[in-house]
Amino acid sequence: LVSGSRSSKTFKPKKNIPEGSHQYELLKHAEATLGSGNLRQAVMLPEGEDLNEWIAVNTVDFFNQINMLYGTITEFCTESSCPVMSAGPRYEYHWADGTNIKKPIKCSAPKYIDYLMTWVQDQLDDETLFPSKIGVPFPKNFMSVAKTILKRLFRVYAHIYHQHFDSVMRLQEEAHLNTSFKHFIFFVQEFNLIDRRELAPLQELIEKLGSKDR
């Protein structure tokens, strides 16, 4: 019997930003400002920096964070515990990526998240979309791709909060999850990257996190 139902596929390898690159410096800047504890300030575009590049670096960082957070609860998120990908009783997500799966399909949460994380990783690894070399321009559709990635990553947070928060608390990871989500929300709010309707499953939590920082 294989212990645990952990799919090795769901937990993606960390996407590394090449050391010595300008994006690496930006990531270091982001980490340093995060350390100051002021998240609203930490998400702002650093002076003189390119908006696309700032969004790219942070998108990679959020992918890594969510990947890690979800990785800790995969044994609780199974075909039987989560037969549909949902964020509470009112929100259900069906998967389509527009290329391999054109018509949205209903699938279990672990399957959906596996599709989602694999899709995001493919976008991040695509040098034409997320160029890592200095001087290589971002494509015209970069912003719309980044928005789609962030919208989908939000769904993983929403699923964890709605269906697995008790497990997160048992693992004593709620502070880590809350900080990561707050950082994510402040970032997407700063640059208006996710439609408010998409955020509805966690609206109360978002308002609570925001009110503490006013």
Automatic annotation (TrEMBL):
Record keyword Transcription present: no
Pfam families per the UniProt record, alphabetical: Mob1_phocein
Binding residues annotated for Zn(2+), in chain numbering: C77, C82, H159, H164
Keyword Kinase: yes
UniProt KW keywords: Kinase, Metal-binding, Transferase, Zinc
GO MF, any single term: kinase activity
PANTHER family: MPS ONE BINDER KINASE ACTIVATOR-LIKE MOB
Protein name, entry field: MOB1A kinase
Organism of this sequence: Rhinopomastus cyanomelas
